[in-house]
Design a protein that fits this description.
Length: about 400
């Protein structure tokens, strides 16, 4: 049986980043991915802010499809507000990006295995025995485990951490990559409205060369028989891009919840979407996945160096993560709650107010302030979330 210091389950951005961090410190690490090819199929609109790439990966032209300078926010009445980003935004080629991250970890010494779904975790006194579906490595022994199995997150419950999401804490998404469309490729566009995407929003993310990821998310509990994500997306596309080719279809879910209360236990840590780290308001999760993978990897390295694997030691990871992105995510969650109850009139008013702001000075905080102009409690939350 193979023995490693750390086993990482799931080779998305969170898992690959964790494996890289451990491998670079000279410890043995296995990175197990259930799919035959890392990064495929893509389940993402692929937008990410430059700051996360500069911090964790650098920027490689081979996996960037488009660069954007801002966002157009559109209300149901067609009015728009423009936000120029302070830093660049990128639309990734996620298939290549995820493969790059996993292969980079492998190049640094991680033992990467595809077709290797982790099925069962048996905790022992000083290690885990991890059962997999891989043809030759059916059992691997690991001192530490990092669970990076994404939104489905089936592994944490085996170790006593419940990850089931409440219906109103999940967005069901459908996206088409459209070809042959004419639109402003310098901006991402987000469109709100209960007729467009109840409890969520529609997006248009440029992919370059007249292509774009066009999709939407519906809050769980808001879709009715026949009125599901496909109904809303088909209607949106028929109105906005009636002659477009559909060159790729992506279905998936994003958590719109708070981060897990417990992200670690005896010998293990949970990262990325599995720890419910996607932004509950926007659904963006790539940045937090990279951040959590790095922090969990660093904690694993410190634990191995100290010969510790107890929960109290690994709680450093949760502490560092909450300080870095978790507390802000919790505040976003509290803002999300009133936000998803907005009527179309509220959204029209918000964009109307926001459209008066100079695009170069407009921020997410500014937009939310416009949204909650008359709600002092939420306004104070926004100010705390962004300015403290
Ligand atoms: C439609 C849609 C659009 C999105 N758009 C954006 C966006 O524009 N920007 C953004 O920042 N975020 C976006 N997100 C969210 C983003 O995709 C995730 O937050 C991000 O991928 C999380 O990374 P991760 O590594 O935690 O999980 P994942 O990327 O989901 O990786 C988890 C990996 O674990 C593997 N796995 C699962 N179970 C097992 C197992 N038992 N054994 C081994 N391997 C396993 C999976 O196959 C997968 O490769 C979007 C999500 C969806 C669904």
């Amino acid at each position: 049986m193979k023995y490693v210091d750390v086993l990482v389950a799931g080779a998305g951005p969170a898992g690959s980043q964790a494996a890289l961090t451990v491998a670079q410190a000279g410890y043995s690490v296995a990175l197990l991915e259930k799919r035959p090819e890392v990064g495929q199929p893509v389940r993402c609109a692929e937008g990410v802010s430059e700051k996360w790439l500069l911090k964790h990966t650098g920027v490689e032209k081979t996996w960037i499809d488009a660069e954007v300078k801002g966002a157009v926010l559109r209300s149901p009445d067609g009015n728009k507000a423009v936000m120029e980003y302070a830093e660049k935004g990128y639309i990734l080629n996620r298939a290549r990006f995820d493969r790059y991250l996993a292969w980079r970890a492998a190049d640094s010494g991680a033992f990467l295995l595809t077709c290797a779904a982790v099925t069962k975790i048996d905790p022992c006194e000083e290690f885990f025995i991890v059962k997999t579906q891989h043809s030759t490595h059916q059992e691997i022994r690991a001192t530490l485990l990092i669970l990076a199995d994404g939104i489905e997150s089936r592994l944490a419950p085996q170790l006593g951490i419940p990850t089931v999401l409440k219906p109103h804490d999940i967005e069901f998404c459908l996206q088409y990559t459209l070809g042959g469309i004419a639109y402003d490729e310098g901006y991402v566009e987000m469109i709100g409205g209960n007729e467009i995407a109840p409890g969520g929003y529609a997006w248009i993310f440029p992919k370059g060369e007249k292509k774009a990821n066009v999709g939407l998310g519906l809050l769980g509990g808001r879709s009715l028989p026949g009125l599901n994500a496909q109904f809303f997306l088909d209607r949106f596309v028929a109105r906005r891009f009636p002659d477009a080719s559909i060159i790729r279809t992506v279905a998936g879910a994003v958590s719109a919840s708070e981060p897990l209360n417990k992200m670690c236990g005896e010998g293990f840590m949970i990262v990325g979407d599995a720890a419910r780290l996607a932004n509950p308001l926007t659904g963006a999760g790539i940045g937090n996945a990279l951040e959590s993978g790095t922090l969990a990897g660093q904690t694993a390295v410190r634990a191995l160096a100290a010969g510790k694997r107890n929960k109290e030691f690994l709680e450093d990871y949760q502490h560092d993560l909450m300080k870095s992105v978790g507390h802000v995510s919790k505040k976003f969650y509290r803002i999300k709650e009133p936000f998803v109850k907005f009527s179309d009139t509220d959204i029209n008013r918000m964009i109307q107010v926001a459209s008066q702001i100079d695009p170069s000075r407009m921020t997410v905080a500014g937009l939310l302030e416009a949204a909650f102009k008359e709600n002092k409690a939420v306004l104070s939350l926004i100010r705390k979330a962004f300015f403290s």
